[in-house]
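Subject: mismatched residue count in predicted assembly?

I count 550 residues in my input, but I want to confirm that the predicted structure covers every chain. Input:
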Amino acid sequence: MEETLKRKAPGGAFKEEKRSESSHADEDCKDEDMPLKENELDSAKAEMHEVREENQRLRTYLDKMMKDYQSLKTQFNNIVHEKDSPKKSRYDRALNHQEHVEQKHDTPEFDVSLSLGRSSSSELKRDNVRKHSSSPQKAETSTKTVEQDKEEGLRLGLDCRFDMQPSVLSKEGLPETSPEHSLDDEKEVHTEKSEKAPEDDEVAHQNPAKKARVSVRVRCDTPTMIDGCQWRKYGQKIAKGNPCPRAYYRCSVTPSCPVRKQVQRCSQDMSILITTYEGTHNHTLPIAAHAMASTTSAAASMILSGSSTSGIGSSGASTAITTPAELHGLNYYLSNNSTSSRPPFYLPNSSISSSSSYPSITLDLTSSSSSMMNNFPPRYNVNSSSTNLNFSSSLESNSTLPIFWSNGNNYQLQNYTKNTQIMGPSLNFGRQHQENFYPYNSFMQKNKNEVAQAHQSMQMDKNSIESATKAITADPNFQSALAAAITSMIGSNNNISGQNAKLEQSFPVLSSFLSTNSQASNMRPVPPPLPISSSKSKSTSPEDNRDQVR
DNA sequence: CGTGTTTGACCCGCGC
DNA sequence: GCGCGGGTCAAACACG
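Triage response: the counts match. Full output below for your records.
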């Protein structure tokens, strides 16, 4: 059975099948008097046939996918070039990395990008004061940080950097993107109106409003939600009205990363953990962090999208804002001249609030899953004051977020093939222990033994790559992932509705729900996650263990 | 010894 | 102006 499934591996699969068939045939010649084996052979052949058919079907899907992709890419490029103007569109620039690299050196306006409303100058000033007054041994790093800040200028909040952005993929054809590349992309994309930088900056000063925040409510019995990013705790407070202390974390991937998160238990229901994200990652994210980051950025983009029309920070700057979702290729209104007042995704129950000093959105992942699925497709509930994002959830317990995002499927699938066999932490297809959620690097560091064992076992195999490919592609999880990818990309052709696809792309966290919900009938159901063993090691969020005391 | 957490002090914005 | 509360800093401490 296992061997049969392995034959599904693309490339070389049929060769292997023939070899196996012939060997089986030889056995049959020797053991003709064994009807049992004949039955086994028949069933194996039948199964093989099915698998082959499925393999063929998947290939067809993939071919179609690639054709569609190329077609769309061509169309998109045409549109972009038609619109070519002195102020090049951000998409064009994103697609023309070479060009924008040159611009980066030529145009000082990249130093200022749009803000989500929070005036950065005062903050920068404050930071400067603080940093310069810091201890001598930190002087060097402080100066560097200040310089970086000055170089980078203002940034959009609540988006994240993806080093496998579709635009990049489409340009490079490869997922590998240097941090510089990403940084450049972000600078480019974040400075749509860079030529008007001073004015925009001024506008930002006049509109000191409000850095968007995204809160995620998750039923979680661990101290913090494992979102794949690295956090360092820098403070804790008892907030008014909640006996549970609020913990403050900052992103520790890079010292200069401005991203903060607050973690607090809900006073009404202690099992609910409320995590609030704020700020912009100025570095490439660990793979495992992409799902949450893109989800929060999409949610933030919704806030901003709403703000541009509903009056939240209704300055000129906000209307011209490049939403994070757009940055990540999440925006489906690419050809829509930003005239839509509605976010490019549908939120069944999101809570959007601008009453506080920060516009915020709450993604409620705590309630039962049935409601969402029964109400599918979810509808964006246009409520004057609040909506609730109710994502149902299997996100209880360890709260690992199932990751599968439709952007850059090729890369994701490649990652899956890499990670599953060797360490498997980067993608989750359902509930899984948090230790399986660590990004590649930290996992490699903290699980050296297992990784070494995995590598050893790989090397022991004469055809390690081939066998690994077989094993992975034979894995029902992979099939499901592939199915989800296919359905998400050619959603209009299958059960998945366009709305679902939108939602899925905007909120990768949802993807597993959607994929399980919308799998084509000929796809296999999602099986339990792979039992990837991993020792409980130092957490990606090192605070976790200690926080349990709280 | 390096890294991360704890925790009291401090800063700052906001409402009265 | 004052007090309150949220947010941050940084020295002390803990841990591997």
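The radius of gyration of chain A is 25 Å. Marking this ticket as 'not a bug'.
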